[in-house]
Amino acid sequence: MRRLSTFALVISLGALAASCGKSGGESSTAPSQPAKPAPTAADMKAAQASLPAPYNTADLTNGEAKFALCASCHSIAPDGPNLTGPHLHGVVGRKAGSLSDYNYSDPLKASGIVWDGASLDRWLTDPRADVPGTKMTFIGLKDAKDRTDIIAYLMVNK
């Protein structure tokens, strides 16, 4: 009996976790789209070769490792969910504050920023100085090489 109760609890918690983040109007039984496959290392290297300098020679391995600082709040996976912050897959070329399913701060929505290498570099240096009033609490990344590597990593994840 105890084993069955534990099993039922695990199933219930799994169902609760699966529905986390859904608004009341969303159905948990709606058909899902097949997930896009994550780019392979070879795909990423090929994409990197077409990037402008300095991103075409950046260290993608370091960019991925430094992205771990971002991963507590942002997903990068294709079709990834919004977490505390919006998902960042395909962020390069996107207008700041433009995802309809994320609640951005008014200053970021009004910033007019379109994410490219230069705007991401300013943002990653010190988000609160770049857009005063942003909700992002990250203090910034002071090392220019690390910023270049993260930006290249974001550029190839499109």
Give the overall silhouette: globular
Roughly how many Å apart are the termini?
50 Å
Q: Any idea what the CATH architecture is?
A: Orthogonal Bundle
Helix/strand order: HHHHHHH
SS element count, helices? 7
Write down the domain tally.
1
CATH superfamily: Cytochrome c-like domain
Strand content: under 5%
Give the radius of gyration: 19 Å
Class, according to the CATH hierarchy? Answer: Mainly Alpha
Q: Calculate the mean pLDDT score and round it.
A: 81
Largest sheet: none
Write the layout of secondary structure elements.
Layout: H1 2-19, H2 41-49, H3 60-71, H4 106-109, H5 117-125, H6 127-130, H7 144-156
Helix pairs in contact: 2-7, 3-7, 5-7
Describe the structure.
- The chain is 44% helix and 0% strand.
- It is mainly alpha-helical and 158 residues long.
- The chain has a single domain, classed as Cytochrome c-like domain (Cytochrome Bc1 Complex, Chain D, domain 2, Orthogonal Bundle).
- Helix 3 (60-71) crosses helix 7 and helix 5 (117-125) crosses helix 7.
- The chain starts with a helix and ends with a helix.
Summarize the structure.
This protein has 158 residues and is mainly alpha-helical.
Keywords:
Cytochrome Bc1 Complex, Chain D, domain 2; single chain; 44% helix; 7 helices; mainly alpha; 158 residues
